[in-house]
Request: fold
Amino acid sequence: NAWKRDGEVVVALTYGSDVDWLANARAAAPSRMVIEGDSILVGAPRELAAEDGMRAVPALFRPLLEALDVTGFVAFPVTV
Reply:
């Protein structure tokens, strides 16, 4: 549920925002994510409005996320 896009990683919060991994990422920024086999250093996540988050997701996945009523999204800046 994570996609690299324009210098950040966008994550759809399919289980909501009250999840341990997100709390850990907020507390431990910067942190590492593995996306498509690459280890990426990311900064602190920021919440996205539902509309902005859905637009950031590839079109192929939007119908599924809408069917699951996913409205939470966060974006992690990729740091160098």
Summary: The chain has a mean pLDDT of 94.
